[in-house]
Design goal:
The protein is an alpha/beta fold and 320 residues long. It is built from 11 helices and 8 strands. It has a domain at 16-199: Alpha-Beta Complex (Lambda Exonuclease, Chain A), CATH 3.90.320.
Length: 320
């Protein structure tokens, strides 16, 4: 709503077809008490265990996200104490983010008879010849790492429980609708996410730093909302487009200012102290910047090579 009021509505999200297809595939994976899901889990994780024909599937219904999180924690403790295969379908987990609770909903969590908890992430992108798109797998690993962190909070208060750092990623096999699976180790992503969470500024601290009377009420004018949003520092990157409803607003602002952040985090990192596109072009043209600066020297070298290549094309000389 805030992005729409600012004139930059978020346009991301799954198509209705993809949404329906994803739900149908997830239902297929979890059908019959999770028999196929448990088979894939035992097959991929090994350990000599044998899956039960049907896992227990506790009812996780409760009022509100806080109630569902409490019900999920209770179900995890009961399943661990029972020592049997249990499938938690869309459990609710709580994780503190910048001093405020955030509620997370994994596709599934499986409790093993030995007390291990395994996160299951079900995706609709295909796994062709046992390999899936690396970028999509990476995104799934980062998402699952957050679930692992949230589960660890519950496991710390549950006797005999241990959260596995190997996540089961379930996808369609090749071009069919048959499920296949791969194990993804998320220890690295978990460590990175944990460090990032400890460095986040608390919501209370951000609110205390805002000017008196600041409001983010979508009913305000676009000018008032724009001023309010700009009072909170933001670090735009193209990756924001996949997750933040204000990404289009921040992108327009970054482009208007000529900020190099609009080109991506990797480009921003390579350019060092050069923060604007105009500054980068001026440095490459030799109009600004210290020639001893490695970044400036690299830009001028690249500009010279480009000029040489264009001269070769214009003169009919083949470029190598």
């Amino acid at each position: 709503m805030l992005a729409t009021a600012l004139g930059s509505p978020a346009a991301f999200g799954q198509s209705q077809f993809a949404f329906v297809r994803g739900n149908a595939f997830e239902a297929k994976v979890k059908a019959d008490g999770g028999t196929e899901l448990l088979r894939l889990l035992v097959e991929r994780l090994g350990g000599g265990a044998e899956a039960a024909a049907v896992a227990a599937v506790p009812d996780l219904t409760a009022a509100g996200p806080e109630g569902r999180a409490a019900r999920t924690a209770l179900a995890l403790r009961e399943a661990t104490a029972a020592g049997s295969w249990t499938l938690l379908d869309h459990p609710m987990l709580a994780l503190e983010v910048a001093g405020s609770p955030a509620y997370l909903e994994p596709d599934a969590v499986v409790v093993h008879p030995d007390g291990t908890w395994t996160v299951v992430e079900i995706k609709s992108f295909p796994m062709i010849d046992s390999s899936a798109d690396a970028a999509k797998v990476g995104a799934a690993a980062r998402q699952s790492a957050v679930y692992v962190l949230a589960l660890e909070r519950v496991a710390a208060m549950t006797e005999g429980a241990e959260v596995g750092h190997r996540v089961l990623l379930v996808c369609p096999k090749d071009f069919s609708n048959l499920p296949t699976a791969s194990v993804v180790d998320v220890r690295k992503q978990r460590a990175v996410t944990s460090r990032q969470l400890t460095r986040l500024t608390r919501v209370e601290d951000i609110a205390d730093a805002l000017p008196e009377g600041t409001t983010f009420d979508p009913g305000c004018s676009a000018e008032e909302l724009g001023t309010a949003v700009e009072s909170v520092p933001a670090a735009y990157a193209p990756e924001c487009l996949a997750a933040c409803e204000l990404a289009f607003h921040c992108r327009a602002k970054a482009r208007a200012e000529g900020a190099v952040e609009a080109l991506g985090r990797s480009v921003r990192g390579e350019l060092g102290g050069l923060t604007t596109v105009a500054g980068v072009l001026a440095a490459a043209a030799g109009k600004e910047g210290d020639p001893a600066d490695p970044t400036v020297a690299a830009l001028r070298r690249a500009a010279a090579l480009r000029a040489e290549a264009l001269a070769g094309v214009d003169g009919g000389v083949p470029c190598h």
